[in-house]
# Entry
Amino acid sequence: KTIGIGESRLAVKIQSWEENLPSHISLAYLPSLGQVKLRLTAIGNDKKQLESETDHQISVLRPLIDKYIFGYDGDEIQNVIGKLLKNNELTLSMAESCTGGYLSHLITSVAGSSAYYQGSVIPYHNEHKVNVLGVKEETLKAHGAVSEATVLQMAEGVRRKFNTNIGVATSGIAGPDGGTEDKPVGTVWIAISTEQETIAKKLQLWKDREINIRAASIAVLNLIRITLSKTIELRN
# Structure
């Protein structure tokens, strides 16, 4: 299972590997929002031999797209993140504006998430970004709620408020209206803050509100995954 790369880009990266698959092993691309599942199907009479062959093909494939692979079989991204947080005794908090709690729903859908998830703020109005999270009024006046500067301060603010290792934030125009020429519908900023750094990423999504909320949430989960990998690597 992969995340953070579209089907077409993924196909280009693994084209040579796919073209060299044995004739009795076929590959299917199963895309979903923000993710692509790769399924290998092997046909033959010797099950153990087929399993061995497919395992070998996966081992050849893995180095080509390792940074995009988050799991296998029944793994879901929120479960994978949960295991990483729990196993490394790290905590998480969230400031959700445009995602309106959907991101928190995904995280708390995992049994035992209370071991690492501390809580969320949904500061839909700017006054709460200021009063609850400590976003500077001059930042909002100069850049607006949907901006890199604002979402960075939101992520830092929620991490401080809940005293967590990691804080994440979302702010955007989910749609179907509310966009401007400079910030059209689908413009979303996401950010993550750790003890080492705070970074933000801009997403340009679509005009469908529900899809934008879900897509932005998946993008944040991927950002958490990438950050956790770096943090764990530094620890080791």
Q: What stands out?
A: The CA atoms of residues 11 and 64 lie 11 Å apart. The chain has a mean pLDDT of 97. The longest helix spans residues 209-235.
